[in-house]
Amino acid sequence: MFSFFKRDPSKKLRQQYDAKAEQAMLAQRSGNMSLYADLTEEAEELWRQLEKLQAEQAEKAK
Q1: Sign of CA dihedral 43, 44, 45, 51
Q2: pTM score, whole prediction
Q3: Phi then psi for 31, rounded to 5 degrees?
Q4: Rounded to whole angstroms, how far apart are CA atoms 21 and 46?
Q5: CA atoms of 20 and 25, how far apart (whole Å)
Q6: For residue 27, which of 17, 36, 37, 16 has the smallest C-alpha distance?
Q7: How far apart are CA 57 and CA 10, in angstroms?
Q8: Which DSSP category does 6 fall into?
Q9: Distance (Å, whole) CA 23 – CA 7
Q10: Residue 24: CB partners within 8 Å, gap ≥ 6?
Q11: DSSP state of 5
């Protein structure tokens, strides 16, 4: 009934992904390649979680 009050969990994951990707880009620009690799891996994990969540939401919508 009040589903419009529920927060969208995919929005939060997307914001976390965007922040992590930006941190990775800044690490790459500063020449810290090991930090870039670590942050990129974390960003990719967040992206996989986001895709999984969106797939689940699409299944529920059917």
Answers
A1: positive
A2: 0.83
A3: 95, 5
A4: 10
A5: 9
A6: 36
A7: 9
A8: S
A9: 25
A10: 35, 36, 39, 40, 43
A11: G
Which of 27, 50, 51 is CA-nearest to residue 38?
A: 27
User: What stretch of H or E contains 21?
Assistant: helix 9-30
CB atoms near residue 43 (< 10 Å): 20
Asked whether 52 and 12 are in contact (CB, 8 A), the reply is: no
Q: Is the pLDDT of residue 1 over 90?
A: no
Computed from CA positions of residues 9, 14, 19, 24, in that sequence, does the dihedral angle turn out positive or negative? positive
What does the block give as tokens for 18? 């965007």
Amino acid at 51: E
Q: Residue 8 pLDDT more than 90? A: no
Residue-wise pLDDT for 18-62, tens only, equals 999 999 999 999 999 999 999 999 999 999 999 999 999 888 877
